[in-house]
């Protein structure tokens, strides 16, 4: 479940720039510097934010969409140590995460860091009530559920220029149609299975935009890793590291960027992004590693096994950032739409050598096991279906952990064996189809794939149990009495001895 953002009715752009000093496109062309003066003007910005917060009745704010620079810092000032966050939070930099709630004074210090391009950025808000963040060139955007007339007057008195706008150009644009998998119990059950089946081995945790931690996964460590994740972190699951370091180094491309993730001798995970010029230094760094892997940097090529975003403790995903959907994520979203017992239509894509029939149902390949193809006995799936054939089937089971859907073709048809129960007690003549050590099988219907019943050796009459195969052969006609038909167990019990007794009794009469 994903929370949607509410548009606030009163949004103001607050700047130190006189609106008269703008060109026809709205760009500032005046004499003011586009970075903080670290003094009177910066203080005026902070006092304006405080005035709007007090006018709205706010004394605490929540961090949303926190970011720190990764490869490149685009600010006009040098980034500060620790992205400017050192000493700001009682718990250290780990306190800077999506959903972290803090008092107004610390919130104002975060606004100061953003005004100074210190390296950290975020939105600060109270849900559906108040929002503030800094845009490029110190354009400050403040949204409120109230008109805040006194705060507007205070802002003007500070020498700043507040303007009413429809919305901030930096507002989150959530697409309700996007796939977002929550990192809930079902996700972690799937991760346990992926690790146990050797499909997965490392977890990438993006705890803020621009910063990640890596975790090596085993069946014994998954729960510990889960407990230590940052709130609302984005997760990406990847195949395990390789212990063949020479093979990893041999896979370095001739050009372009790659990310290398490796585990040192102490068991710690590291990562580094490098280009071709830096490959020799990278090779030196990982030459003594216990295991490593290479991952592409390009978004088009960087496709993990599956992804998720950690929800809050109530199961709601409140982080507005999303992961890029993988094929597995799209499968998960599709499986969430299926229900046991519903009827789906699809096309037979292929029939495996082990007898399973695969059916494309809207881009996902479901399977039908041989017993679910027909109520009647069949030898091969091709006796019932053909590749390319469109069929309808009932959903038997949906397994989102293993990404498996089981279908039944026969469930849409009446069981013909039930129609035969009226024959119980009757004597018929059938063909012997099979000889087994404990008796013979006799087909009780004339059709080629008709149901067969068992005549146990004890019910073969005068024939000696050890020599029944010398007396009866496959293809022989044999009179049998139908003793029982059990559609649940798929068993039909026959007796040649009782059929003979009935026939002799009729002759005697």
Automatic annotation (TrEMBL):
SUPFAM superfamilies (UniProt xref): Nucleic acid-binding proteins (SSF50249)
SMART domains the record matches: S1
S1 motif domain segment(s): 341-410, 425-497
Sequence similarity: Belongs to the bacterial ribosomal protein bS1 family.
InterPro entries on file: NA-bd_OB-fold, Ribos_protein_bS1-like, S1_domain
Stated name of the protein: S1 RNA-binding domain-containing protein
Keyword check for Acetylation: no
PANTHER family: 30S RIBOSOMAL PROTEIN S1, SMALL RIBOSOMAL SUBUNIT PROTEIN BS1C
Swiss-Prot/TrEMBL keywords: Ribonucleoprotein, Ribosomal protein
């Amino acid at each position: 479940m994903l929370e949607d953002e509410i548009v606030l009715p009163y949004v103001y752009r607050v700047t130190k720039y006189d609106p008269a000093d703008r060109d026809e496109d709205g760009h500032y062309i005046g004499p003011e510097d586009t970075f903080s003066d670290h003094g009177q003007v910066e203080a005026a910005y902070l006092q304006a934010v405080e005035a709007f917060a007090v006018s709205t009745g706010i004394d605490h704010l929540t961090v949303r969409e926190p970011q720190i620079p990764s490869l490149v810092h685009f600010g006009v000032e040098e980034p500060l140590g620790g992205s400017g966050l050192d000493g700001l939070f009682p718990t250290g930099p780990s306190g800077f995460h999506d959903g972290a709630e803090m008092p107004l004074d610390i919130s104002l210090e975060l606004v100061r860091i953003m005004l100074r391009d210190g390296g950290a950025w975020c939105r600060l808000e109270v849900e559906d009530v108040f929002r503030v963040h800094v845009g490029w060139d110190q354009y400050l955007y403040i949204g409120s559920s109230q008109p805040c007339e006194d705060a507007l007057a205070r802002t003007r008195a500070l020498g700043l220029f507040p303007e009413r706008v429809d919305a901030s150009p930096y507002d989150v644009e959530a697409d309700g149609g996007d796939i977002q998998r929550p990192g809930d119990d079902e996700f972690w059950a799937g991760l346990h299975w992926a690790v146990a089946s050797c499909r997965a081995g490392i977890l990438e945790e993006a705890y803020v935009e621009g910063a990640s931690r890596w975790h090596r996964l085993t069946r014994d460590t998954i729960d510990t890793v889960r407990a230590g994740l940052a709130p609302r972190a984005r997760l990406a699951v990847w195949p395990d590291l390789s212990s063949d370091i020479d093979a990893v180094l041999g896979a370095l491309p001739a050009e372009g960027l790659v990310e290398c993730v490796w585990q040192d001798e102490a068991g710690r995970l590291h990562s580094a992004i490098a280009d071709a010029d830096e490959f020799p230094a990278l090779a030196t760094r990982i030459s003594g590693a216990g295991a490593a892997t290479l991952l592409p940097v390009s978004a088009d090529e960087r496709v993990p096994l599956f992804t998720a975003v950690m929800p809050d403790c109530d199961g709601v995903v409140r982080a507005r950032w999303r992961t890029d959907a993988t094929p597995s994520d799209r499968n998960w979203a599709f499986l969430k739409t299926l229900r046991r017992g519903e009827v789906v239509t699809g096309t037979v894509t292929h029939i495996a050598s082990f007898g399973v029939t695969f059916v494309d149902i809207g881009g996902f390949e479901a399977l039908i096991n041989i017993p679910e193809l027909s109520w009647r006995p069949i030898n091969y799936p091709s006796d019932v279906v053909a590749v390319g054939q469109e069929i309808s089937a009932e959903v038997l089971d949906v397994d989102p952990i293993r990404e498996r859907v089981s279908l039944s073709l026969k469930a849409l048809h009446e069981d013909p064996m039930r129609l035969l129960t009226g024959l119980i007690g009757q004597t018929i003549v059938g063909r012997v189809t099979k000889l087994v050590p404990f008796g013979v099988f006799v087909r009780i219907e004339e059709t080629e794939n008709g149901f067969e019943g068992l005549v146990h050796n004890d019910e073969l009459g005068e024939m000696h149990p050890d020599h029944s195969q010398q007396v009866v052969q496959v293809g022989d006609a044999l009179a049998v009495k139908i003793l029982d038909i059990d559609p649940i167990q798929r068993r039909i019990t026959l007796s040649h001895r009782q059929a003979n007794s009935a026939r002799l009794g009729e002759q005697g009469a």
